[in-house]
Every structure is written in C-alpha cells, then in structure tokens.
Amino acid sequence: MPQAKVVMNVRLVSPTTSVIDIQGEVTAFAEQVMMQACAEASTPTTRTIILNFSELEYMNSGGIGLVVTLLIRVNRQKQRLLSYGLNEHYRHIFALTRISDAIRIFDEESQALAAAQEAS
C-alpha cells in the first residue's frame, strides 16, 4: 500500500481552538494521518478546529472525501471546522462540491482565529 505523502502538525492555540497544519498531498492514503491529527486537535474544551491548507501541494477526490469525513466527525462532537490558505483552484472545488457551505474559508490564519473567537 502506498504511503501518505503528507504531514499534519497540530497546534493548540487556545483552550477552545486547534489548528491542523497540512503539508503535502491529501489523498485517500492520508486517512490515518488526518484522523490522528483530528483526535489530537480535539481536546475536551475544543470548539473549533482550523485546517491550514497553505502548504497543501495536492488534493484529489479521495482527499476531498477525507475532508468531508473529518467535517462529519467534528460536527458530531459539537465542534466546527474552519480553514484558510486554500489556493483558487481548491477554493473553486470546495465551492463546486458545496464544502464551502459547511467549512468557512479564510485567506489568513488571523481571520480564521478571529472567527473562532467570535463563536467561543
């Protein structure tokens, strides 16, 4: 089985907000890495998880499916998912698939953090 070509680092930026920094390729092979990062980002007080796509190199339909799976998991835990750093190509894909209806997309981390604070 091919290896995932992705690294996800979790930063706990406040008691209620975590950021997952995504570097590399998000494909179906990234499932274990993504779900582990989600588990690490979800503390008992976490209300918002922010996905940082600024170092995303590639995402295919399997990766889009993982993002949707992550969204479902986060929603079940009464949390919400925000994102930033998507380039225009992936913004367009998120809009076409209507993922952007469920995951707010920001240009910069500071904007996503401000939105997370508003909801806390």
From TrEMBL:
It comes from the Bacteria. InterPro entries: STAS_dom, STAS_dom_sf. CDD domains: STAS_anti-anti-sigma_factors (cd07043). GO terms for molecular function: anti-sigma factor antagonist activity. Residues 19-116 form the STAS domain. It holds the Pfam family STAS. This is STAS domain-containing protein.
